[in-house]
Amino acid sequence: MIPRLIATDLDGTFLHPDGVVSQTNARAVRAALDEGVHVVFATGRPPTWMQPIADLGLPTAPVIGCNGAIRYDLATGEVAEVVDIDPALIATLGQRVREVLPGVTLGLQRGDSFGYEPGYLESPPTVPGYRCAPLEDLLVGGPVLKVLVQSYRAPLDDVLTALREVAGEELTLTWSTRGADTGERVLVEVGARGVDKAAMLARYCATLGLDAGDVAAFGDMPNDLEMLSWAGRAYVMPPRHPLLAGIGRAVERSCSEDGVGRTILEWFNGVRGSTLTGVMDQASLD
């Protein structure tokens, strides 16, 4: 059965490893839209990192960004919902996490800019929208969609344990890595309480008169866990992350092999009278 809405993660899922959209995946999205199926891009990326999707030139491009902290239409620029983090909670987080994890640095993601503490980046970016300053200065500005906590001195499990003790139930933690040893970069993303891709996707579906049973979702990392668990049909990209074990079904091909696009096109392959005549044959040539 063809879903009424497709939600797909980007990095490691819909995008190729080099960050571009393949021809097959682009055709799959347009094919779904032509058949009246909604397509939503659900990602940890902020709005400023969405050029690969903007380049598709879609008439409508609903995006759930920053792991569920913002929903907007990339094609029109209209922002539908924002769930930001209380600056006071960020200040407390910064103070307390350093007491248990020395050397941690924070980055603050807003819709159109990124602020970071000294030491967070090895060299300052040469593009607009980046600012290096102490945390207390970074707190001044527009809504903060997520906080990135970075450490090179502790493995992922230690960082998560410390952050859970510090954040309690006031903040939401997620990550999109497979773990790291001491000395490697560990990055944990922090959102407001209750923020995840599934929560925002469910609210968006409600505006369309849809529920979880109407949704097929694609993902590959722990920040996709809630969305994959909520959707009626979940598709997990290879190699399967251990935290996604037992969820949904495995996509046969990786992101570098157009796994998302090929799966979508296969749904329509047997649709009589479909506008997709020849699309599957062309996809097999890519």
Automatic annotation (TrEMBL):
Pfam families hit by this protein: Hydrolase_3 (PF08282)
Alphabetically ordered keywords of this record: Hydrolase
Recorded GO CC terms: cytosol
Entry keyword annotation includes Hydrolase: yes
Transmembrane segments: none
Gene Ontology MF terms: magnesium ion binding; phosphatase activity
Domain of life according to the entry: Bacteria
Stated name of the protein: HAD hydrolase family protein
Organism from which the protein derives: Raineyella fluvialis
